[in-house]
Amino acid sequence: MADSMQDNLEQFLTEYCKLVTAGFRERWNQHIPEIYHNEISEAVGGLAARQATLAIEFARNPGIWNGHVAPIILRCMTDTHITLAWILGAPQERSKEYIRFGLGQEKLYVEYLENESQQAPGGELDDSVEELIRLRKSWLNSQLMEWAIDVNVGSWSGKKTREMAAEAGCESLYRFAYVPFSGSVHSMWQHVGIYNVEPCLNPLHKYHRIPRECKIFCV
Amino acid sequence: MKKKPLNGYARKGKRFIPPMKQITGMREQSYIDDLLPELIWLGLIHDRMGYRFGADLLETIIELSKNWLKSGAPINYAMQIAYGGLSEEQKAEIVNEWRKREWLDDIQHALAPLVLLYDGFAMAFVGPPPSVITREGLILRIKECVKKHIDKYETPGVVLCGSLLLTRLMAGTITFARDIELPDLNAVVERPGSEEAKRAASFMRASAMTEMAMLDPPKYWPRYFWNRGAELSPCELAEGVQ
After folding, report:
1. pLDDT of A124 above 60
2. Per-residue pLDDT tens for B84-138?
3. How many other C-beta atoms are found inside a 10 Å radius of the C-beta of residue B80?
4. How is B99-113 classified by DSSP, letter by letter?
5. By CA distance, what is A39's nearest residue in B?
6. Is some CB atom of chain B closer than 8 A to the CB atom of A26?
7. Neighbours of A81 (CB within 10 A)
8. Which has the closest alpha carbon to B167: B135, B204, B142, B220?
């Protein structure tokens, strides 16, 4: 009986993953890429591929279908949905901004790495750091020369996610998925207070909360 | 003391602007997006007949253009857009000159992918090649040509950039102050990889981007060229065509 249920679940998940892949391909095949303004299809295609990848990886790993990890993935998928929906409202301008923001963040990271590698005493950092810098710089320069990259430390869209969701018509997704799952992503009390502590049963301790060990999930 | 990250960047609100972009009037120009589509016709010529022939071909056009009335707007005949503004008589003059020199067949063969596959190619007046080339063959040629010229740091791309400067030198529309030590531009082809070649290549790339900024041609051809590429052949991934 148990074996049969497991087989059914496995078959269901395999079919689900095939469906996600087929759905992604069907959509991509209908898309005519704009090569001159390549940012549009790169951003839109990349975000759609990410959403499909997250859905498939999540489905393939039942071990993370719990309140600790699932909201992290789901919040990420909600974010992807809102970002994609908002970009599609003005694809040319917003996809460019989305990509340039990412390049700026990468540029900043490379600067941190370079700074660290210059300051480190001889031999403390191995060659792999230099190689990491070289690879990341080459990824940057293949898209926009480093010297032309702005670094934006604010929101990439210049808006809050709530505003983006409202503009893209996904306010309910923001309210009922983004907000609750954010607690899990940022390890806020509304998540930690439920999932990572439990009441001590000793009345003398005022029923204070104590860390809940994860072993109860390690079945 | 640790060096501050983003040294030289200027903060504007939540955005840090890199030093080069703080210069007033600075505008981004892209070799791949905008310049390559304008010059790719010359790449096809180079692929078939070599760099020397490309230079000779430009020279014939410059010579002919000396008798044409100038419109006032700056023109560089290395760019395909320059031919869009020619009169039918001027186009015929060019074709006749190439025919007289027995170059026309070769040029028609070389430019066939652009003439036959890309509507609105400004040099379509040269006409199709005398013999039939399959559509697949044409696509393969333009694909190979773009692949070869897409890197402005490799010799074919450098020569394309240099053709803008070469055209100006031939036309006598550019002069250099005496104290500027000009590199030997031939070094790019004759001694690739040498220090002299690197200096010349850098000079050519800088001149090309300056020329592009100065002319600021409309973007309809580059945009069409790249989007047409997506219509002509599908995306390709490492493991095969998608």
Report:
1. yes
2. 989 999 999 999 999 999 999 999 999 999 999 999 999 999 999 989 999 999 9
3. 25
4. HHTT-HHHHHHHHHH
5. B33
6. no
7. 19
8. B204
Q: How many CB pairs under 8 A join A and B?
A: 59
A102: exposed, middle or buried (Cβ count in 10 Å: 0-12, 13-18, 19+): middle
Which residues have CB under 8 Å from A211's CB, separation 6+?
A196, A197
DSSP-H helix ranges across chain A: 2-30, 39-60, 70-87, 91-119, 127-141, 161-167, 171-173, 179-185, 189-195
Is a pLDDT exceeding 60 seen at residue B242? no
Question: Which residues of A, range 62-121, sit inside 8 Å of B by Cβ?
Answer: 104, 108, 111-112, 115, 118-119
Can you list the pairs that A48-56 forms with residues at least 24 positions away whose Cβ atoms lie under 8 Å? A48/A24, A48/A84, A49/A24, A50/A80, A51/A77, A51/A80, A51/A81, A51/A84, A52/A20, A52/A21, A52/A23, A52/A24, A54/A80, A55/A20, A56/A17, A56/A20, A56/A21
